[in-house]
Amino acid sequence: MSFKSLKFRHIFWAAAALILVLAFAWAIAPRPVPADFGVAHTATLSVTVSAEGHAQVRDVYTVSAPTAGRLMRVEKKAGDPVEAGETLAILLPVDPVLLDARSRSEAQAALQSADALLGFARAELQRAEAEAEYARTELQRFETLAESGTVSQGALDRARLQSRSAQAALQTTRANVRARQAEREAAAARLAPPDANLENGLVRLTSPITGRVLSVDQTSETVLAPGQPVLELGDPVDLQIIAEVRSEDAVRIRENAPARITAWGGEADLRAEVRRVEPFGARRISALGVEERRVNVILDILEPWDDWSALGHGYRVRAAIEVWRGEDVLTAPVAALFRHEGGWAVFAVEEGRARLRAVETGPHDGRTAHIVSGLAPGQRVVLYPSDRISDGVRVRAR
Predict the structure, then answer these.
(1) Is 48-57+238-326 in CATH node 1.10.10.10?
(2) Architecture of domain 97-193
(3) Cβ–Cβ under 8 Å, residues 348 and 380
(4) Is the pTM of this model over 0.70?
């Protein structure tokens, strides 16, 4: 065997051994863990509270029988337009039952009580009007002083709040006067002579407004008791949204907060605004049997009526009410966050390795969270980190 042949064999086997060693090292070397990545970036973040709700005509008018009698067949159908003063139904009164001495005394006492309550309501209305006028004058004065820098912005905001509160109280007292007036008329009707409000022996039930028929409670000819409803009327243009919000979410909602009406059947969401958060929470049982407290939040639709004219009284909707908004804040996907040592942390991707970073978070909308500190804009983070990922582990995009 020549020297040249022996040298070739040594080189060949040395190369083969080196290749085997390298292959074995590559086989046992840790592989980068595949993962999904997200990016922290600066954006506008809006946090909302979502709730089921329904559309409702703001003022619903119930046309009812003023006296006992036989109702003629009602020709009006739900959705039909009506004019103020239009005859909706005809009632043929039955022979009235004469009041005995005790019933007449009770009716007279009820009428006197209704008169007293009506007088009290009117006095409250005068007081509310005076307070509303005073609050309006104070607001004008504060706005004038604010222009010259004499008063603080906080004082101006309090004046605006007092003015709005006074206007709301005024509306409440006006509604109370109308209710007391109706009670007084009902009490007086019991003492009215048998032929009161009759025309050729008939009572005509007329429309108090110009609008549409919302529902018909009685269609066929039948005998009605006094006060039994016949139709419900309303103006479909004057629609509001009633959203049932959990009480723990309702405390974060403020009047005039922006909102969106979703899942109402239209192609686009509708802009809305919170008009009132009711102060009373009602008991509700969820579909899972959990007892909850729900609060009605009343919303006004801001879009033109032509955009939502198909939305009707009682229709189901969803409302997303804004409770927090941040402009140009650092955000990151919520899927990147996990609990660590009593706080929140993420795995930031640096030079192909996952680095544990403790972060301080702010509000979130369920998908995106406000990052107060711990990350920089443009930094990549690992989404849904598994137990294979730890500090320093190599990672790659899935």
Answers:
(1) no
(2) Orthogonal Bundle (1.10)
(3) yes
(4) no
